[in-house]
Amino acid sequence: MTTASDLPNRRLPTTSVFVFFVLTFAITWGVIGSYIFWPDAMSAQFGAISGSHPFYFLATWAPAIAGFSVVLLYGGISGLKRFLSRLLLWRCPTPWWMFILVGIPLVFMAGSLIKGGPLMAQIPPEGAGAMVGLMVMMLFLGPVEEFGWRGVAQPLLQRYMAPLWAGALIGTAWGVWHLPAFYLAGVVYENWSFLPFLIGNIILAVLVTPIFNATRGSLLLPMLFHWQLINPFWPDAQPWDSWILIVVAAVIVWWKRNEMFSRDGAVTEVIPGELRP
Q: Which sequence spans correspond to the domains of the chain?
């Protein structure tokens, strides 16, 4: 009997992007929705939800879980190994590395200064060690999502639309996917406004798109990009960081307009070495 593992070069069908989105939303909205509609029962059974609760990690990891499931379904274990090899893709033009390592922190610092805030986030009474610990924990939250958003959804969508529109669509889904958290007590989103957050997600997804394509489908750089966005050392710069990022995105889209508005050169492989139809 032939199994998926016997078909290492099986091409993921473009329609598998729907499987990815359905699984992603089902897991996250199912977990968070349970706490919204049955808060007392869920808290009594599993404990109150918080940013460190196992269910919060499960909800956050939903895009990765969905991405891995799709890759395993069509590529088997060998396909998953090749998919994970995209973590080793680190070569890209120097400006993109500078943007991730230096540009993003400068955006937060500039936004904070405009609103009269500090250059860096305030060190808590527990000391810098607590912030370092939080920064490490953050590495296992948001960045893990990139196994799904950029790992699976981006290349599949770029088979049929220009990178700009693929990024904007993923950013919209990314923002809407967070929606239940805005109705959940005990997490940071409960005090935020959804519409600015949604627009911010679209801008960020567009910004990471040329980086993703410049690295030929790297998972590493989008994960570092995501990590910088939630680095606890950067100061609160809302809403100015969003305005700055909108300007930056407009400049980058214009600069890379030939690549952003054309599918020529866009990454379309989820599993490196997929057979062409």
A: 4-260
Tokens 């269910």 appear where?
Answer: 55
Per residue in 72-92, pLDDT (tens digit) is 999 999 999 999 999 999 999
Given a contact cutoff of 8 angstroms between Cβ atoms, the answer to whether 42 and 73 are in contact is no
* Cβ-defined contacts of 81-86 (< 8 Å, 24+): 82/8, 82/271, 82/272, 82/273, 83/151, 83/270, 83/271, 83/272, 84/219, 85/272, 86/151, 86/217, 86/218, 86/219, 86/220, 86/272
Coil, strand, or helix at residue 77?
helix
Contact 146, 86 (CB under 8 A): no
**Rounded Cα gap, residues 123 and 219, in angstroms:** 31
Cα distance between residue 79 and residue 269, in whole Å = 11
Residue-wise pLDDT for 217-257, tens only, equals 999 999 999 999 988 888 988 888 889 999 999 999 999 99
Distance (Å, whole) CA 115 – CA 118: 9
Q: What is the DSSP string of 107-169?
A: HHHHHHHHTT--SSPPPPTT-HHHHHHHHHHHHTSGGGGHHHIIIIIHHHHTTTS-HHHHHHH
Structure tokens at 110: 């500039």
Contact yes or no for 21/153 (Cβ under 8 A):
yes
Q: How far apart are CA 205 and CA 226, in angstroms?
A: 10
pTM attached to this predicted model:
0.90
